[in-house]
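Q: My labmate handed me this sequence with no annotations at all. I'd like to see what the chain might look like in three dimensions before we decide whether it's worth expressing. Could you predict it?
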Amino acid sequence: MRHAIFPGSFDPVTSGHIDVIKRCSKQFDKFTVLVANSTSKKYLFSLDERVALIKEALSNDQVHVDSFSGLTVDYAKSNKAHCIIRGLRAVADFEYELAMARMNKNLSENIETMMIFSDPKLNFVSSSMIKEVAKLGGSLKGLVPVNVSEALKSKFK
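A: Here is what I predict for the chain of 157 residues:
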């Protein structure tokens, strides 16, 4: 079975993330969106909220959503995943993602990292930018799933 994971904080999940998930999930027998819970990060949405927002946005039985704290390669090993998917918005993301891919390969030589570019129409979208626009009352149409837009409005009331 070909199993891939797509890790990230998804705070919140954006249309760029959804694009990568939909395109990549078709390539694997099992596809897991892996929501990170890092103690060093401050999140707008709780772990449970982020997982629920992704599940609702996808409403797809083919994609599994899970959460973790720790090293992604450890999750991959314990869940028999052979591939880590990383989305790239622009060339600026590449250097960081390359270093992370090399570190993951060093930690587990049997797990590959695949990088995929987001849809060019969405390559400017980031979760931090989305939060700022939402906080200031700007339109998020097309930038996040509808349920995420509603959740953001609720958070910033």
